[in-house]
Protein 1
Amino acid sequence: MSLDVASIREDFPVLHRMINDKPLVYLDSANTSQKPQVVIDALSNFMSNGYAPINRSAYQLAAEATDLFEGTRTALAKFINAPKAHEVIFTKNATEALNLVILSWGRANMKVGDTVLLTHMEHHANIVPWHMLVAERGIQLRWIPLTSDGQLDLSNLDSLLQGVKAFSFTAMSNVLGTINPVQQLCAAAHKAGAIAIVDACQSVPHQPTDVQAWDADFVTFSSHKMCGPSGVGVLWGREVLLEALPPFLGGGNMIADVRLDGFTTADLPAKFEAGTPAIAEVIALGSAVKYLENLGMANIRRHEIEMSTYVLNSLTDRFGDDITIHGPTNPELRGATFSFAFRGIHPHDLSQVLDQSNVCVRAGHHCAKPLMRILGANATARASFYLYNTQQEADMLADALDSASDIF
Amino acid sequence: MAGLEDLYREIILDHYRTPRNRGELDAPAVSAEGHNPLCGDEIRIFVDVRDGIVTDVRFNGSGCSISQSSASMMTSAIKGKPVDQVKAIVKKFKSMMTVDEDESPVDESLNLGDLEALQGVVKFPVRIKCATLGWNTLLDALTTAGQ
């Protein structure tokens, strides 16, 4: 079933905002997504009528808050087909979720000379924590290069995986839009005796996710890119691995007992949820999950394939060699996130000109500087489309791009 | 709202298209590197200071029209001037960009000349960091030169 985008747009109040008498063209959802009314209402209703601490008080208000909070955990487990709800851990963002896995697992399992396999298309959140382990533990990093159309070059995957203890990779590039073959990569990791860590920040909001079909070991993503509030990240891990993983942050909620000479940890998931979490935001994320499920993740994916087809064809037809769109040219192999170079105009200047038409794009290195160096740019402009974007908006992007040539 | 004509003045675009003093200087000149972590812009400023005078200055790197033209105009404004005067120009410029942090008074008598064209950048707060990148890097280079 295809998405009724006109009706979806009615659900997002900000999309009706006029800035300087012109409509908003929001093409920055790979950065952060807009919020539907149901999520705004959930946040507001809880703040107005239900706000209370979770997990630690006996009164009814607190019990209700705890139920709502845990309801999101259960809903998320179903959303990504996790075997058990307590394998779903809330963090403050996806970056913290990755740091939790990488640093906790790395410190417990890696020693001098141990090797990790990464890819050239990783976000800094899946690079810098490993660099920190390089400094701390003397581990080594190995990298999968890219093909000319921005896919992983898997021709030497088995040899690159030899002796590797962990393989950590993105499910979808936030710069190139490339969708990686997660299931195949997890299988290859396991065959080599490595664990598979999947940064699914860009993929979870845009397509169905099944962590069991992937056969991944750890998966991380964020609320704010999937129509939920900011301030919440998610880590899913296999129960047996989470049980063995040392805690990351210490403090309230994560302990079973604390004595003068030490502590013991709480059971999952509390073991990894030290301190008061983003209670209202987690609860509102539950509404985002429900909203996405009602629309159907497969339908959202289909819409984005249609958008990708339209964007790739229309921009190339209109601008020819004046535009270079990075990443795969086959819409089936990519999400609707497009980094591009246009007529030699610096991305920062380009985004400034597009802003005159309220066309919101990101300009910069997208927290992927190693990839930028490989692309031979220190920045790109990036337009990213989501479930509420239309072909008309792609045309408005193209019109706005044309106007940039009047200045530069 | 502020229009693009406030930002992209002709003199700015001229320095962007035809940068002045672009290049490098050999030792004994010194250099410093600056980054704008927001957008990935990179710049390197070379200064040759002799007897308290900035006898030569060059820049290279890559960035947007504002960062590149600001650096180009800066090199034109400071070349051949005594270090004290250069620092006063930097202070006046940063003050115009609303990012002058220290308490000492700005020399209001200084004429920034073409640099005044960059005043419009203040209406686009995100771009202030672009305009000041070369200037902050110049201060680092002067520090390296022992000034």
Note: Chain B has one domain: 4-144.
Protein 2
Amino acid sequence: MTDESPAQATANQANLERAAADRAVAVDGLTKIYDRVRAVDGVSFDVRAGEIFGIIGSNGSGKTTTVECLQGLRRRDGGAVSVLGLDPGAQRDALRHRIGSQLQESALPERLKVWEALDLFAALSPRARDWRRLVEEWGLHEKRQAAFSDLSGGQRQRLFVALALVNDPEVVFLDEMTTGLDPSARHAAWDLVRQVRERGTTVVLVTHFMDEAEALCDRIAVFESGTIAAIDSPAALVARFADQSIVHFSHDGDDLPWLDGCPGVQSVARHGTRYTVTGEGPLLAYVGAALVTHGIAPLDLRGERATLEEAFLRITAKKAGAA
Amino acid sequence: MRGVQKLAWVEVKLFIREPIALVFAFAFPFFMLFVLAGVFGNDVDPADEENLRVWRGVGPSDYYVSTYVGLVMASAGLVTLPLRLAAYRDAGVLRRYRAAGVSVPVVLGAQVLVSLGMSVLAAAGIIVSSTLVYGTALPESWPLVIAGIGLGLLTFSCIGVLLGAILPSARAVQGAGLTLFFVMMMISGSGPPLEVLTSAMRAVSNAMPLTHLNLVVQDAWLGFGWSWAESLITLAFGAASGILAVRFFRWE
């Protein structure tokens, strides 16, 4: 089912590992086939050491399959993959103690207590850090004697992230890390992920929360039907795919025909005293400058930028339209 | 190595916290012991040849006590061990262990260790209470009985891992494992004596590993020596299960 001969695959893998020495993760043409469906179809990307790299996409777009191949939990059907310079397929044993995994669908024995889980997973790793600190950091101290089955969804999720970090990994894979967390717990988790990165761990974050990807990630790969539709920093993705800006202000007086001539302005709408200017680029700066030049300084002048969510919807819609 | 020990110790604690597992390991064999010893007693009538043939020349309670030890191992191998493995797989626990770098031998080794420990405890409990309460005979040959128990533990551990590996879900294990357990409980020697089974029942009984294991342990217990034929058949069940289990083990 692969597109390449075994000899060629070996050569590709060796080339990739040589080329990827300074990168935490390098992926070239990764393919995974389930029942003749290409769940992941020739995906290529790099994750730089120390980066928070986001993977976003709709359900079934191949995100989880991709990170499972990176962790050696699934056998790839084609392409070359290097994680910390190792092939997760062939060198899983060497790799597994250097990476951390928070899996999307997993569980612990129901009657296992929080502290026992951390103690156990620390014992399973030759390079464990002090799990008692993780208990504090991830807000599990009060629940350390609680059984897994008695934890809420959010508490389970925090325990899984703590377990993924117990071996002090060089790369940690977080798959839907904040699913089930309430808003304050989500923001707390984001801060912790930033701290994890500051300690030097590379983070690969799978999520379908756009605000999370936008807040945390240095770069993002947008997955769509097993391929990467776009890959860039959140700001660049927004600029490229949803470069729409809106400026609002109020002005009581004559129409302002010169606004149409401002750089970037596409349309101006007026409802009573309220103006809505739509356009692209640094619209707020241009409109603000033009207003001030004409002696108008509205107190309620404000701009609205497109978010990653809009960029994501445009990227996936474009892809669907092209297909 | 620290990992295996830790995992095995955690599994012991989990086992003790799971009442249903304890009930299965301990309650059924003891229940059988008390019911059948109460019904049949342990008297032998030397003049009743038919009776001597059915009970192999010993009192009913002496006849049964070794089969309860077999029942302990069967309940661990047919129900407790596979149920735990399948439940772990269903819930994603095995997946979680795998991602943490736990290998198949460590996962299975920890489970089998716990299963062995509990079986040994339960078997010792059967021997002690049967001897103290009903005055049944202790083994004629301790070394052979211990060898037989070792063979049984090995065989039923392999069968347990196989059932846990091939059955699709914990629900399926409950169905298939419990059915096998009750069939063996009834016709492998701990229910009606083998001599009184109909020929059809006897044929089914012969297809059950517990029947052969019971004969091995019973022979050793009652001083009839070591049955090579029965022990090799038992071992064959264990080896075949072990090979298939390794072949078909699935993490998820």
Note: The first strand of chain A starts at residue 23 and ends at 34.
